[in-house]
Amino acid sequence: MTRLFLLWILTISCLPIKAQEIPNDTLIVGYTTAPPFIIQKNNRLEGINMWLWRRVAKDLDLKYKLMPMNFSDMLDSLSNGSIDVSINPLTITGERSKRMEFTHSFYASNATIAIAEQSSFEEIVQFVKGFFNTNVLKGFLLLLGIILLFGLLGWYFEKRENPEHFRGGAKGIWDGLWWSAVTLTTVGYGDKAPKTGFGKLAALVLMFTGLLFISGLTAGIASSLTIDQLNNNAEGFSEFKERAVGSVKNTGTEQFLRTQFFKNIKAYPNVSAGLTDLRDKKIEAFAYDEPILKYRIQQDSSLKDLAILPIKFDIQFYAFGITKAKPELEQTISQRILEIMETEGWQIVLSEYGLKEF
Protein backbone atom coordinates (compact mmCIF):
# COMPACT_ATOMS: atom_id res chain seq x y z
CA MET A 1 0.00 0.00 0.00
CA THR A 2 2.81 2.40 0.92
CA ARG A 3 4.60 1.67 -2.34
CA LEU A 4 1.46 2.34 -4.36
CA PHE A 5 0.95 5.64 -2.56
CA LEU A 6 4.54 6.75 -3.23
CA LEU A 7 4.22 5.76 -6.89
CA TRP A 8 1.00 7.80 -7.16
CA ILE A 9 2.74 10.85 -5.58
CA LEU A 10 5.69 10.55 -7.96
CA THR A 11 3.35 10.30 -10.97
CA ILE A 12 1.38 13.38 -9.94
CA SER A 13 4.54 15.42 -9.32
CA CYS A 14 5.79 14.67 -12.83
CA LEU A 15 2.60 15.72 -14.61
CA PRO A 16 3.23 19.52 -14.60
CA ILE A 17 6.71 18.99 -16.03
CA LYS A 18 5.40 16.89 -18.87
CA ALA A 19 2.67 19.45 -19.59
CA GLN A 20 5.32 22.09 -20.20
CA GLU A 21 7.39 20.00 -22.55
CA ILE A 22 7.41 20.98 -26.22
CA PRO A 23 6.08 18.25 -28.54
CA ASN A 24 8.71 16.58 -30.71
CA ASP A 25 7.05 17.79 -33.92
CA THR A 26 7.18 21.47 -32.83
CA LEU A 27 10.05 23.48 -34.26
CA ILE A 28 12.04 25.78 -31.97
CA VAL A 29 12.47 29.01 -33.93
CA GLY A 30 15.03 31.51 -32.68
CA TYR A 31 15.00 35.20 -33.52
CA THR A 32 16.36 38.58 -32.50
CA THR A 33 14.90 41.91 -33.54
CA ALA A 34 16.34 43.30 -36.78
CA PRO A 35 14.02 45.96 -38.24
CA PRO A 36 12.62 46.03 -40.90
CA PHE A 37 12.97 42.24 -41.09
CA ILE A 38 11.91 41.47 -37.52
CA ILE A 39 10.17 44.27 -35.60
CA GLN A 40 9.01 44.07 -31.99
CA LYS A 41 5.89 46.20 -31.41
CA ASN A 42 4.63 45.78 -27.87
CA ASN A 43 3.90 42.04 -27.70
CA ARG A 44 3.57 41.54 -31.43
CA LEU A 45 6.24 40.65 -33.96
CA GLU A 46 6.10 42.20 -37.42
CA GLY A 47 8.44 42.70 -40.36
CA ILE A 48 9.44 41.11 -43.64
CA ASN A 49 10.89 37.91 -42.17
CA MET A 50 7.96 37.43 -39.81
CA TRP A 51 5.54 37.68 -42.73
CA LEU A 52 7.61 35.25 -44.79
CA TRP A 53 8.00 32.71 -41.99
CA ARG A 54 4.33 32.76 -41.05
CA ARG A 55 3.41 32.25 -44.68
CA VAL A 56 5.84 29.33 -45.00
CA ALA A 57 4.70 27.75 -41.73
CA LYS A 58 1.04 28.07 -42.68
CA ASP A 59 1.52 26.66 -46.17
CA LEU A 60 3.61 23.72 -44.90
CA ASP A 61 1.51 23.21 -41.77
CA LEU A 62 4.55 23.58 -39.50
CA LYS A 63 4.11 23.79 -35.75
CA TYR A 64 6.62 26.08 -34.09
CA LYS A 65 7.51 28.00 -30.96
CA LEU A 66 9.26 31.38 -31.20
CA MET A 67 12.21 31.94 -28.88
CA PRO A 68 13.80 35.40 -28.47
CA MET A 69 17.60 35.30 -28.22
CA ASN A 70 20.58 37.57 -28.69
CA PHE A 71 22.36 37.19 -32.00
CA SER A 72 25.47 35.29 -30.84
CA ASP A 73 23.50 32.83 -28.72
CA MET A 74 21.10 32.24 -31.61
CA LEU A 75 23.94 31.24 -33.93
CA ASP A 76 25.48 28.97 -31.29
CA SER A 77 22.12 27.33 -30.55
CA LEU A 78 21.53 26.72 -34.24
CA SER A 79 24.99 25.16 -34.54
CA ASN A 80 24.53 22.76 -31.62
CA GLY A 81 20.92 21.92 -32.46
CA SER A 82 19.31 23.62 -29.46
CA ILE A 83 17.00 25.41 -31.90
CA ASP A 84 15.78 24.19 -35.27
CA VAL A 85 15.43 27.40 -37.24
CA SER A 86 16.64 31.00 -37.16
CA ILE A 87 14.33 33.37 -39.02
CA ASN A 88 16.70 36.32 -38.86
CA PRO A 89 18.13 37.69 -42.13
CA LEU A 90 21.31 35.65 -41.84
CA THR A 91 24.10 36.36 -44.30
CA ILE A 92 25.23 33.20 -46.09
CA THR A 93 28.97 32.74 -45.52
CA GLY A 94 31.36 29.85 -45.99
CA GLU A 95 32.19 29.69 -42.30
CA ARG A 96 28.54 29.59 -41.24
CA SER A 97 27.73 26.94 -43.84
CA LYS A 98 30.01 24.58 -41.91
CA ARG A 99 27.83 25.01 -38.82
CA MET A 100 24.29 25.23 -40.24
CA GLU A 101 22.14 24.81 -43.32
CA PHE A 102 20.73 27.78 -45.22
CA THR A 103 17.47 28.04 -47.08
CA HIS A 104 17.29 29.63 -50.50
CA SER A 105 18.19 33.33 -50.27
CA PHE A 106 15.14 35.60 -50.19
CA TYR A 107 16.85 39.01 -50.30
CA ALA A 108 20.19 40.46 -51.41
CA SER A 109 21.70 43.57 -49.89
CA ASN A 110 25.04 45.12 -48.99
CA ALA A 111 26.78 46.66 -46.01
CA THR A 112 27.30 50.39 -45.66
CA ILE A 113 28.62 52.96 -43.18
CA ALA A 114 26.76 55.40 -40.96
CA ILE A 115 28.39 58.51 -39.52
CA ALA A 116 27.35 61.36 -37.24
CA GLU A 117 26.83 64.59 -39.15
CA GLN A 118 28.64 67.66 -37.89
CA SER A 119 26.59 70.54 -36.46
CA SER A 120 26.98 74.06 -37.87
CA PHE A 121 29.06 75.04 -34.84
CA GLU A 122 31.35 72.01 -35.29
CA GLU A 123 31.82 72.87 -38.96
CA ILE A 124 32.83 76.44 -38.05
CA VAL A 125 35.24 75.18 -35.40
CA GLN A 126 36.72 72.73 -37.89
CA PHE A 127 37.12 75.51 -40.46
CA VAL A 128 38.92 77.74 -37.95
CA LYS A 129 41.16 74.86 -36.90
CA GLY A 130 42.23 74.54 -40.52
CA PHE A 131 44.03 77.87 -40.25
CA PHE A 132 46.13 76.52 -37.41
CA ASN A 133 47.62 73.86 -39.60
CA THR A 134 51.42 73.71 -39.21
CA ASN A 135 52.10 74.52 -42.85
CA VAL A 136 49.70 77.47 -42.80
CA LEU A 137 51.30 78.88 -39.64
CA LYS A 138 54.75 78.53 -41.21
CA GLY A 139 53.49 80.43 -44.24
CA PHE A 140 52.18 83.29 -42.12
CA LEU A 141 55.44 83.49 -40.18
CA LEU A 142 57.39 83.68 -43.44
CA LEU A 143 54.99 86.38 -44.66
CA LEU A 144 55.62 88.44 -41.52
CA GLY A 145 59.37 87.95 -41.97
CA ILE A 146 59.26 89.30 -45.54
CA ILE A 147 57.16 92.29 -44.48
CA LEU A 148 59.57 93.03 -41.65
CA LEU A 149 62.69 92.69 -43.82
CA PHE A 150 61.52 94.89 -46.70
CA GLY A 151 59.83 97.34 -44.33
CA LEU A 152 63.14 97.98 -42.59
CA LEU A 153 64.99 98.19 -45.93
CA GLY A 154 62.48 100.66 -47.34
CA TRP A 155 62.63 102.82 -44.24
CA TYR A 156 66.43 102.71 -44.18
CA PHE A 157 66.77 103.78 -47.85
CA GLU A 158 64.06 106.46 -47.70
CA LYS A 159 64.26 108.04 -44.23
CA ARG A 160 66.67 110.83 -45.30
CA GLU A 161 65.51 111.75 -48.80
CA ASN A 162 61.82 110.98 -48.29
CA PRO A 163 60.92 112.03 -44.71
CA GLU A 164 57.35 112.90 -45.69
CA HIS A 165 56.55 109.21 -46.27
CA PHE A 166 59.18 107.55 -44.09
CA ARG A 167 59.64 109.43 -40.84
CA GLY A 168 62.51 109.00 -38.44
CA GLY A 169 62.56 106.84 -35.33
CA ALA A 170 59.92 104.30 -34.32
CA LYS A 171 57.21 106.06 -36.35
CA GLY A 172 59.35 105.70 -39.47
CA ILE A 173 59.80 101.96 -38.86
CA TRP A 174 56.02 101.68 -38.70
CA ASP A 175 55.80 103.63 -41.97
CA GLY A 176 58.19 101.11 -43.55
CA LEU A 177 56.20 98.12 -42.27
CA TRP A 178 52.94 99.64 -43.51
CA TRP A 179 54.40 100.32 -46.95
CA SER A 180 55.87 96.80 -47.11
CA ALA A 181 52.56 95.12 -46.19
CA VAL A 182 50.55 97.21 -48.68
CA THR A 183 53.05 96.55 -51.47
CA LEU A 184 53.39 92.82 -50.74
CA THR A 185 49.65 92.26 -50.79
CA THR A 186 49.35 94.34 -54.01
CA VAL A 187 46.76 96.61 -52.36
CA GLY A 188 48.67 99.71 -53.49
CA TYR A 189 47.10 102.60 -51.53
CA GLY A 190 49.79 104.97 -52.85
CA ASP A 191 49.97 106.89 -49.59
CA LYS A 192 53.64 105.94 -49.29
CA ALA A 193 56.09 105.46 -52.17
CA PRO A 194 59.90 105.26 -52.45
CA LYS A 195 61.91 107.94 -54.25
CA THR A 196 65.48 106.66 -54.04
CA GLY A 197 66.98 104.15 -56.41
CA PHE A 198 67.59 101.54 -53.72
CA GLY A 199 64.10 102.13 -52.34
CA LYS A 200 62.53 101.55 -55.75
CA LEU A 201 64.68 98.45 -56.28
CA ALA A 202 63.52 97.06 -52.92
CA ALA A 203 59.91 97.84 -53.93
CA LEU A 204 60.36 96.04 -57.25
CA VAL A 205 61.72 92.90 -55.59
CA LEU A 206 58.96 93.07 -52.98
CA MET A 207 56.20 93.34 -55.59
CA PHE A 208 57.37 90.32 -57.59
CA THR A 209 57.98 88.38 -54.37
CA GLY A 210 54.48 89.31 -53.21
CA LEU A 211 52.85 88.01 -56.39
CA LEU A 212 54.54 84.61 -56.09
CA PHE A 213 54.36 84.26 -52.34
CA ILE A 214 50.73 85.34 -51.85
CA SER A 215 49.62 83.01 -54.67
CA GLY A 216 51.46 80.09 -53.06
CA LEU A 217 50.17 80.90 -49.58
CA THR A 218 46.57 81.15 -50.79
CA ALA A 219 46.86 77.80 -52.55
CA GLY A 220 48.41 76.25 -49.44
CA ILE A 221 45.60 77.46 -47.19
CA ALA A 222 42.95 76.24 -49.63
CA SER A 223 44.66 72.87 -49.90
CA SER A 224 44.97 72.55 -46.12
CA LEU A 225 41.30 73.34 -45.56
CA THR A 226 40.23 70.95 -48.31
CA ILE A 227 42.32 68.07 -46.97
CA ASP A 228 41.08 68.72 -43.44
CA GLN A 229 37.48 68.70 -44.65
CA LEU A 230 37.99 65.45 -46.55
CA ASN A 231 39.52 63.84 -43.49
CA ASN A 232 36.46 64.72 -41.46
CA ASN A 233 33.91 63.83 -44.13
CA ALA A 234 35.37 60.65 -45.52
CA GLU A 235 33.37 59.03 -48.29
CA GLY A 236 35.73 56.22 -49.19
CA PHE A 237 35.69 52.77 -47.61
CA SER A 238 39.44 52.80 -46.94
CA GLU A 239 39.24 56.19 -45.19
CA PHE A 240 37.86 54.43 -42.10
CA LYS A 241 40.57 51.79 -41.65
CA GLU A 242 42.40 53.87 -39.04
CA ARG A 243 39.25 55.07 -37.28
CA ALA A 244 37.08 53.69 -34.50
CA VAL A 245 34.39 51.73 -36.34
CA GLY A 246 31.58 49.74 -34.76
CA SER A 247 29.59 46.75 -36.00
CA VAL A 248 27.42 43.97 -34.59
CA LYS A 249 29.33 41.12 -32.96
CA ASN A 250 29.76 37.84 -34.89
CA THR A 251 28.12 39.17 -38.04
CA GLY A 252 29.29 38.98 -41.63
CA THR A 253 30.04 42.70 -41.62
CA GLU A 254 32.32 42.46 -38.59
CA GLN A 255 34.22 39.57 -40.18
CA PHE A 256 34.52 41.46 -43.44
CA LEU A 257 35.99 44.52 -41.69
CA ARG A 258 38.58 42.34 -39.97
CA THR A 259 39.61 40.71 -43.26
CA GLN A 260 40.02 44.21 -44.72
CA PHE A 261 42.53 45.10 -41.94
CA PHE A 262 40.40 47.58 -40.02
CA LYS A 263 42.48 48.26 -36.92
CA ASN A 264 39.97 49.67 -34.41
CA ILE A 265 36.73 47.66 -34.49
CA LYS A 266 34.28 47.77 -31.61
CA ALA A 267 31.72 44.94 -31.56
CA TYR A 268 28.21 45.57 -30.20
CA PRO A 269 25.46 43.14 -29.17
CA ASN A 270 22.94 44.90 -31.44
CA VAL A 271 22.47 47.79 -33.88
CA SER A 272 20.79 50.11 -31.36
CA ALA A 273 23.76 50.07 -28.99
CA GLY A 274 26.19 50.83 -31.82
CA LEU A 275 24.16 53.70 -33.30
CA THR A 276 23.71 55.20 -29.83
CA ASP A 277 27.50 55.27 -29.33
CA LEU A 278 27.88 56.77 -32.80
CA ARG A 279 25.41 59.51 -31.93
CA ASP A 280 27.32 60.18 -28.69
CA LYS A 281 30.63 60.38 -30.64
CA LYS A 282 32.13 57.36 -28.86
CA ILE A 283 32.93 55.86 -32.26
CA GLU A 284 33.47 57.56 -35.61
CA ALA A 285 31.42 55.24 -37.82
CA PHE A 286 29.14 52.21 -37.66
CA ALA A 287 29.11 49.56 -40.39
CA TYR A 288 26.26 47.13 -40.93
CA ASP A 289 23.56 46.01 -43.35
CA GLU A 290 22.18 48.98 -45.29
CA PRO A 291 18.41 48.25 -45.03
CA ILE A 292 18.63 47.69 -41.28
CA LEU A 293 20.66 50.87 -40.69
CA LYS A 294 18.35 52.99 -42.85
CA TYR A 295 15.20 51.72 -41.20
CA ARG A 296 16.57 52.15 -37.68
CA ILE A 297 17.71 55.74 -38.31
CA GLN A 298 14.40 56.66 -39.99
CA GLN A 299 12.29 55.26 -37.17
CA ASP A 300 14.30 56.60 -34.21
CA SER A 301 14.08 60.39 -33.82
CA SER A 302 17.05 60.40 -31.42
CA LEU A 303 19.25 59.29 -34.34
CA LYS A 304 18.23 62.11 -36.71
CA ASP A 305 21.79 63.49 -36.82
CA LEU A 306 23.16 60.25 -38.26
CA ALA A 307 23.63 59.83 -41.99
CA ILE A 308 24.28 56.90 -44.35
CA LEU A 309 27.26 57.37 -46.65
CA PRO A 310 26.99 56.41 -50.34
CA ILE A 311 29.29 53.45 -49.74
CA LYS A 312 28.33 49.91 -50.69
CA PHE A 313 30.49 46.89 -49.88
CA ASP A 314 30.27 43.21 -48.94
CA ILE A 315 27.22 42.07 -50.94
CA GLN A 316 25.11 39.81 -48.72
CA PHE A 317 22.47 37.18 -49.41
CA TYR A 318 19.90 36.72 -46.65
CA ALA A 319 18.38 33.35 -45.76
CA PHE A 320 16.85 31.44 -42.87
CA GLY A 321 19.23 29.21 -40.92
CA ILE A 322 18.38 25.54 -40.33
CA THR A 323 20.08 23.09 -37.99
CA LYS A 324 22.35 20.56 -39.68
CA ALA A 325 20.27 17.79 -38.12
CA LYS A 326 17.29 18.55 -40.40
CA PRO A 327 18.49 18.89 -44.01
CA GLU A 328 15.09 17.76 -45.35
CA LEU A 329 13.48 20.69 -43.57
CA GLU A 330 15.81 23.09 -45.38
CA GLN A 331 14.82 21.66 -48.77
CA THR A 332 11.11 21.88 -48.03
CA ILE A 333 11.29 25.46 -46.74
CA SER A 334 13.58 26.58 -49.57
CA GLN A 335 11.13 25.32 -52.18
CA ARG A 336 8.26 27.18 -50.54
CA ILE A 337 10.31 30.40 -50.26
CA LEU A 338 11.03 30.29 -53.98
CA GLU A 339 7.33 29.92 -54.73
CA ILE A 340 6.38 32.80 -52.42
CA MET A 341 9.00 35.09 -53.93
CA GLU A 342 7.32 34.68 -57.32
CA THR A 343 4.04 36.07 -56.00
CA GLU A 344 2.90 39.69 -56.07
CA GLY A 345 2.42 39.57 -52.31
CA TRP A 346 6.19 39.35 -51.75
CA GLN A 347 6.79 42.52 -53.76
CA ILE A 348 4.06 44.31 -51.84
CA VAL A 349 5.63 43.35 -48.51
CA LEU A 350 9.06 44.62 -49.58
CA SER A 351 7.53 47.87 -50.81
CA GLU A 352 5.63 48.27 -47.53
CA TYR A 353 8.94 48.44 -45.66
CA GLY A 354 10.68 50.64 -48.20
CA LEU A 355 12.76 47.90 -49.85
CA LYS A 356 13.08 46.58 -53.35
CA GLU A 357 14.90 43.73 -55.02
CA PHE A 358 18.69 44.26 -55.11
From TrEMBL:
Q: Supply the alphabetized keyword list.
A: Membrane, Signal, Transmembrane, Transmembrane helix
Q: Name one Pfam family in it.
A: SBP_bac_3
What InterPro entries has UniProt attached to this entry?
K_chnl_dom, Solute-binding_3/MltF_N
Residue ranges annotated as transmembrane are 136-157, 201-222
Q: Which residues form the Solute-binding protein family 3/N-terminal domain?
A: 26-356
Signal peptide (from-to): 1-19
The organism sits in which domain of life?
Bacteria
Gene3D superfamilies in UniProt? 1.10.287.70, Periplasmic binding protein-like II (3.40.190.10)
Q: Which PANTHER family match?
A: AMINO-ACID-BINDING PROTEIN YXEM-RELATED, MEMBRANE-BOUND LYTIC MUREIN TRANSGLYCOSYLASE F
Task: Specify the protein name.
Answer: Transporter substrate-binding domain-containing protein
The species is Aggregatimonas sangjinii
Q: What does the organism's lineage look like at the top?
A: Bacteria, Pseudomonadati, Bacteroidota, Flavobacteriia, Flavobacteriales
